[in-house]
Specification:
227 residues; mainly beta; globular
Length: 227
Amino acid sequence: MNSGRIWKTGILAVVVTIAFAGLVFRIEEWTKGLGSDLVALGQTGEPAGPPVTKIIPQIVVGSFDGNVTKYKTVMEIVNTGSSPVSVTGSFYNPDGSPSTIAFDTNLPASPIRSNLAVTGLEANHVLVITGENAPLGTMNWGKIVSNPGTVSISTFFEIRDVVTNVLYSRVGVEASPANMAGFVIPRIRNVTGGLDVGFVVVNTGSVPATIRATLRDTTGAILRSKT
């Protein structure tokens, strides 16, 4: 097992999530025989106080293999506090423009596109946002703000057969802080199954950020470093 480390050397926020290996390449190969159903761990905000911003670095919707399989992303926002909170959301294309994907919610105002208007969420209630329909495979990212920050945000990706709707894989990821400056990626590889580890980095700032990546082996020795 190798591990990679990325450090942001500028002053801007960069966020990350462990993403699907072979997201655009070898999807059919690495999903064969899989039926995983992983728990989506929630990232909880502060118990009280000012608004808290969390980033969903990857939202994957649609098919990347000619409608053999399809991706679906589900985001669940839970108010873990004892009082109501207000939640807003913004969703973006990879180039930072407003999202072109339509998202469904469990609210009467469903669906939404690039913005979730200020929404009240009662104590212990759940807001579900689902990205499921896109003409082609599309990757977006999102920003969720809660006031106060007493919410847990969970996201999971599904891959299903387009014809039979059979579930091949479900993977849960946590939301990221909006000001993450560094992170470690453990590389877990299965050559036979075609599995590897990928990641997504989102620059949440308004100007370019500098990123430094260092690849190390199991002894900590540097294999390669690049800025």
